[in-house]
Amino acid sequence: MLRYTAFSTDPGGGNPAGVVLDARGLSDEDMLGIAAEVGYSETAFLIPSSSGERRFDVRYFSPKAEVPFCGHATVASAIALAERSGPGELEFRTPAGTVPVTVAEGRDGSLRATLTSVEPKVEGVAEADVREALAALGWAGDELDAALPPRIAFAGARHLVLAAGTRERLAELEYDFDRLAAFMRRLDLTTVQLVWRASETVFHVRDPFPVGGVVEDPATGAAAAAFGAYARELGLVPEEALLTLHQGEDMGRPGVLTVELRGGDPRVRVSGAGARIPRTPE
């Protein structure tokens, strides 16, 4: 059982994930139990494929349930593998679809992983559902940024995107945990992605994750991919763009996620660094 953080080179930053590099023989109950014991927002369980040494079946569990895809645990797992077998191409077969991952070594020797999402989609959300989400969050309708309308975005998992009008609104996150969780289960949402636009290509984001049993996810790769699709669908950025998402600052776990959009390819690429989290003495 390994512990890595994703989207930061500092073990105290980014989003920590559990990583099990060989989960052969583990039952669903075993995996859920391990994820609950670890206590991170997600733990990845890899099963090596017989068709290639750099191909894996991957499942992701929060402390409460299995999720179809998790970006930060994908980045963490890829970096853990690269530390053992070198950088290069990997293939993760997830419940959401096949996700190619590339790990490259920087000049300073640090490793950086880039995942390519499944084909994303963006859909509208009913006004009544937006009102319920805002009520659970304790936000007023006039605190939203009208230039970034609410949508549900998918790139392996479903996320409701809500844009704050100010950085101050984003920084204050005290919400009704049970009410938001019930709302999210009804719409099959993995997180609610709260965003604030700092510039044309720089955003600050936060992701409440009550359905996973945690108040907030520190750095959310799946939501970052979904947001890239959202930004392109609404014409907020060019067809080809490189976006920077800052997440975790308000939790004291800062991380940086890079989102790349390529012309002619609907998929979204999300990149980030990672670091092993040292074990603390029992």
From TrEMBL:
> What are the GO MF terms of this UniProt record?
isomerase activity
Against SUPFAM superfamilies, the record matches this protein to:
Diaminopimelate epimerase-like
Keywords in alphabetical order, please.
Isomerase
Gene3D superfamilies, alphabetically? Diaminopimelate Epimerase, Chain A, domain 1 (3.10.310.10)
UniProt lists the family membership as follows: Belongs to the PhzF family.
What is this protein called in UniProt? PhzF family phenazine biosynthesis isomerase
Q: Which organism is it from?
A: Streptomyces thermocarboxydovorans
